[in-house]
Amino acid sequence: MMIPKFTMTFWKAVAVVILAAGAVATIVRFGMGLGASTNLTDEFPWGLWIGFDVLCGVGLAAGGFTLAAIVYIFNIKRFEPIVRPTILTAFLGYMLVIVALMFDLGRPLQIWHAFIMWNPRSVMFEVAWCVILYTAVLALEFAPVVLEKFNMTKTIAMLKRISIPLIILGVLLSTLHQSSLGSLYLIVPEKLYPLWYSPLLPVFFFLTAVGVGCGMVLFESSISSRVFKRGLEVHLLSDIARVAVVVLGVYAVLKFMDLSDRKALSLLFEPRAETYFYWLEVAAGIIAPILLFTQPRMRRSPSGLLAGGMLIVIGFVLNRMNITITGMEGWAGTTYVPSWMELAVTVAIVALGFIAFAFAAKYLPLFDHGGEGKVHAKMELDITADLHAVSRL
Length: 393
What we know:
The structure is a single chain. The chain is an all-alpha fold. It has one domain: Formate dehydrogenase/DMSO reductase fold (Up-down Bundle). 74% of the residues lie in helices and 0% in strands. It is built from 16 helices and no strands. It has helices spanning 10-32, 34-37, 48-60, 63-73, 83-104, 113-116, 123-149, 153-161, 163-183, 201-227, 234-261, 273-293, 296-299, 302-332, 340-363, 371-392. Residues 371-393 have low confidence and may be disordered.
């Protein structure tokens, strides 16, 4: 068996540096505690690891339930070629969210308490169980891709028999905890700045998750097509971009109506940091992608699809970071800036996600959409060979 030759490239060197910094930060975090490794305080206990690693991580993985619902529940099969990489992105996203959460918990070794010490009245209890169960569902949804590699046809057939109930369960679980993450902030009306606080936060969290799910499908498909030198399903992604426009439009209208009902529209013009960050979020994540994707030429352009997907993702990240950090700084009376170790852990977790995706793309049939394609390809080859044999007679 030949051992593949390892060659150091620029991006591999960058990954090594990032992972090394993350390893140092990890040792300090678990060896000396949160106080020694973060800039979190009693006044500001939730920072980058919750705002980006958890809230953004869960939302950025929303493409999994969005596309699974489109293909398997609404039976729009033409999107099937992009399901597998999307499910993998979602699965990796949830796995990395769980890893990130272990860093932020004060007592991570007691995470098992959620399994036996039930508190059904707690939103965090519901989120914890939904994330645990949905991660298991994603693992089962992605399992056929791994099993195909080892030709385990009987196990694949068994999983296919339960696939539809499994996907429906996954969509329900994801819908529940995507909105429940917004419910966490309903208890802080006097702490969260009014531009972001709303009784409709659960609805806003769900809509933005669906929107960024579309954005992540566009972004992941565009990047993987360039990195792995494969074709881009522009005709499919163009329709995903149109869905994104509708979702972002509904969100924008509801957001405006909510600000109007709460008499908070005047806050949009106050000269303060929260206003500027809010307009940056709206401009990048709503206005720009809507203007971009309402042009048919841009929806049919690989560069336009990538740019629009990136804008939606950036706007989503700004929204979650604004809710977690910017919107809370005024009440706390302090400015939170993450420590280098917080940044190192976050960047290392993101890098691990890219590395895992690259390995899966290299060693698994990630961009095939089922064993049927291989069977049809073999049949075509056999027919072609028979025709050649006949022609030689």
